[in-house]
Amino acid sequence: MPNTSAGRKHAAGSGNVGGGGGGGDQSDGGSGQKSQQRSKVARVPDDIDKKGQIKRLKDVEISIPIVYGTMSFWLGKKATEYNSHRWTVYIRGATNEDLSSVVKRAVFQLHPSFDNPTRIVESAPFEVSESGWGEFEIAITLFFHSDVCDRQLELYHQLKLYPEEESGAQSTKKPVVVETYDEIVFSDPSEAFVARIQNHPIAIVPRLPTGLTLPPGPIENSSEKKRGDTKDHPFSQWFMNFSEADELLKLAAARQQVQAHIVKLRRQLSMIDGPPQQVKAPSGQ
Amino acid sequence: MDAKDILGLPKNSISSAPQEKRPRPPKESQRKPDGVSREVYALTGGMAPPLMPAIDVSLLKRKQQQAEEKVTWQWLPFTSSARADNLQLYHWVRVVNGVPPSGDYSFAKFNKSVDILKYTDEEYEKFLTDPTWTKEETDQLFDLCERFDLRFIVIADRFPHMRSVEELKTRYYAVSRALLISRARSPGDVSGHPLVKEPYIAAIEVERKRALGSLLSQTKQLEHRDAEIIAEAKRIAESWLNNKVNALAESGTPGVLPAPGAAATAPIGAADGASTPSSLRMLGVYLRTNVLDQMVQAANSSAGLRTIKRVDQTLQDLGVNIKPKVPTKSVCAEHLELRKEILTLLGLQKQLQYKESEVSGNRDSHAEIPSTPKRSHRADQDKAFVPESAGFGGERPGKRDNRRKVAGRFAEAPPSPPQSKRPRKLKISDG
């Protein structure tokens, strides 16, 4: 119970700035530090001047499966009252592909008791690591490249530091991981975006109408792009698995059960209607 | 408090701050009553104790002192002020220390009589004349009213002239009302008096009696036909709702089951682009779960809050997440289909329920229809589908509801239903 109250200060060393707060930005390295200075910079993508020429593909949907969440490690013996966990909030491709060809920037809004609670991450991997003792909701705002979408997207995630009762006591070995699967959907995407993303592993692109010619996609500099993915991420062993097949199987089984029951109910209804020497009742179906 | 000690909680733990904040009883301002143990008193929270001591403690003590007294029972004569004839009767009385109880007979106070206003001749001439009533008749009426304590049925029976109960009441209340008003110093003095505030209106009374009479004289056939009509109306409303749900289902996403793992080769966007609410598509970017939420809301829009809850409960009973864990496009489509099917299922179930209640109603009047096959129905319906017992557990109460509504029509009826109704009622609630 003490870990879920929202109103209290969560940051390590919020009282003594020099201490825990200083150690806050180790793993998001330079990008986090750099961006903190310009946290008030315009939120709209800079190059929208080409907007007039953008050709859009009507009724086409591009989806980008993503996973976002937090992973928290208990500090064990090193834990102090206000600095008990080291945690990371992140957004990754569902198959750990690099998201940076779509996402331009991610802004993580931490609890106001942290130093510089608005953390801007300009390149993949999109993550922020911090340490503290309290759980709170983190808002993640995603900004996309100008050919993708002008609008931003908000995600919300509840930071979880303490394991559920049934999963046993806290351990420094096993982190508490909470991840959410979702898909970012772009409707009526621009041709340029579709061309660029068409064969990219992060995107689900529908079969496009035949006869459509897209501008040639840019040649990817694969060696440079590699660094943004999370395949070799130190946390990757803890990432959760999201199996669509399992979910579909479960749903199919449930539907079968319900459908069978519907059939049975219809039969019962017709049996009641069947031998009538009573009122003729119009069946609703 | 003691509970905290037992749980080993610190007296002032921060985590239980909200509970702690409850205003504590002002210190000793309300003294713990004698004879109540500290623990029991603590349970009351120091508020005004919900349990009143039935007997005053001080009284108990006094009684103990009197225990020394000699109590005898004696056969003694008594008179009652309730009687005008000074009749002397005998009864057994408790006599303490040889002193018989004095005063009036203790039951005399129950001899209540109605205060009937008396008018003078002068008053009658001034305020109370009525072309349909003579003074003689009015005098007779008031005599009878006093004699029979306003029991108008009896009064009407004894009244020498042919007057209906309503006529008698009208005259009595009109005279009393006029007297009250004429004797009052100002109209405001009596404006709150029930006789003045709520005048007797014979027409309403006649109508009320007619309605009651027709209800009481209703035959079983008539009553049955009413119940039938109500069931029918319900069913029509139900099927109308179902059609709406089905229409919604058809306009929604086509229920094709893509091969598992089909995400990489999603169907052509144009085909099911229509499934996405246009409000979201206008945004250009959104989350798959946003789409699902909106679609679920749309599908639920025709259902009531209780039905929506039951859908969720059914999903849980089926072992399906209320919100999909992996909301891909096909998972969302399937999830939505499942929800719609559950809605259809619940609708059918309700329909069946109405039909059954109707049939069981019929069974009543047509005794030749055996009840056994119907019972077996019920049983296998209860067992076949696991979620039913939990998710649709409301079925039986629902049935009673139904019944109650029927009864609700006769709200004006006296609290105890006419005898003829009773056997039927029992049958329905257990059938």
From TrEMBL, chain A:
Ranges of compositional bias, category Gly residues: 15-32
YEATS domain boundaries: 56-200
Pfam family, one: YEATS
Biological process terms in GO annotation: regulation of DNA-templated transcription
Subcellular compartments: Nucleus
Primary localization: nucleus
Swiss-Prot/TrEMBL keywords: Nucleus, Transcription, Transcription regulation
One GO location term (cellular component): nucleus
Signal sequence extent: none
Protein name: YEATS domain-containing protein
Organism of this sequence: Spirodela intermedia
Automatic annotation (TrEMBL), chain B:
GO CC term, one of those recorded: NuA4 histone acetyltransferase complex
SUPFAM superfamilies xrefs: Homeodomain-like
Disordered, as annotated region: 1-36, 355-431
Biased composition (Basic residues): 421-431
Keyword annotations from UniProtKB, A to Z: Chromatin regulator, Nucleus, Transcription, Transcription regulation
Biased composition (Basic and acidic residues): 19-36, 355-367
A Pfam family it matches: SANT_DAMP1_like
Myb-like domain mapped to chain residues: 129-178
Location within or outside the cell: Nucleus
Gene Ontology molecular function, alphabetical: transcription corepressor activity
GO annotation terms (biological process): chromatin remodeling; DNA repair; negative regulation of transcription by RNA polymerase II
Protein name: Myb-like domain-containing protein
Source species taxonomy: Eukaryota, Viridiplantae, Streptophyta, Embryophyta, Tracheophyta
